[in-house]
Amino acid sequence: MPKRIPIISGNWKMNLNHLEALTLVQKLSYNLAGHNYDAVEVTVHPPFVDIRTVQTAIESDRMSIVLGAQNCYFEEKGAFTGEVAPSMLAKLNVSYVILGHSERREIFGETDEMVNKKVHAVFKAGMTPILCCGETQAEREGGEAEAKVGGQIRAGLAKLSTEQVASMVIAYEPIWAIGTGLTATPDDAQAMCKHVRTVVAEVAGQAAADAVRIQYGGSVKGGNASELMAQPDIDGALVGGAALDADDFARIVQFR
Predict the structure, then answer these.
(1) Cβ pair 71, 82 in contact under 8 A
(2) Residue 173 falls in the annotated catalytic set
(3) 1 belongs to a structural domain
């Protein structure tokens, strides 16, 4: 089984102007001085308008933090007012793109088919998708969580090569735990991340399932990160609120 390098990703959502973003990434880099980025990869995902500023800071200060984005469209160019093409992000040295986040699905009506198109487009542009999945509280209480998550994974991975699946990241975020302060127990999170890996094996084979990195997201904090990360099928965290505080996020990154 290949060694999976943990990946901790900060999703800044619709927060911080470009000056605030610059301050945050600089403080985060300072807090992580001496961190072994080869042992735990760190990505930040600013709003679109902040990406160029954060890119310049990362490159000029030779930070080992990896730049990501929160979304993109699946078309290369055209009359799509307000959208951003994958190639535009690639030109800014973005490496990872979050796709199918529950807020995109729930608020903006993104379908599984749209998310799959975006996954393909991100790969085509030379970047790596972070494919999100997760269930609502009602779906969990109704015994539908595994079916919901499995369906999102199967749709999101449709028509990808085994190599593509192996190289990507999947983020399991129970919707009921996002921004609520509620967190799945480590056992609950592990059970669903194991289910995700099982579904990946069914879709793309066991080798891809062994290689793909699965993040847990949903009120991850410095106090619970180490216990979550100790689970065998959890290879990182997709962090929301705590990623906006350089001290809190650094504690999560340094969960060891």
Answers:
(1) no
(2) yes
(3) no
Question: Annotated catalytic residue: which of 41, 103, 135, 173?
Answer: 173
Q: What is the CATH number of the domain that holds 182?
A: 3.20.20.70
State how far the Cα of 167 lies from the Cα of 67, in Å rounded to an integer.
Answer: 17
Whether 92 is covered by a domain: the verdict is yes
Q: Do residues 220 and 241 lie in contact, with contact meaning Cβ atoms separated by under 8 Å? A: no
In a domain, 2, yes or no: no
How many angstroms separate the CA atoms of 91 and 228, rounded? 35
Is 139 tagged catalytic?
A: no
Number of domains in the chain: 1
**61 lies in a domain?**
yes
pLDDT digit string (tens) for 174-231? 998 877 777 789 999 999 999 999 999 999 999 999 999 999 998 899 999 999 999 9
Minimal CA–CA distance to 212: which of 228, 225, 198? Answer: 198
- Residue from 41, 45, 101, 139 carrying the catalytic annotation: 101
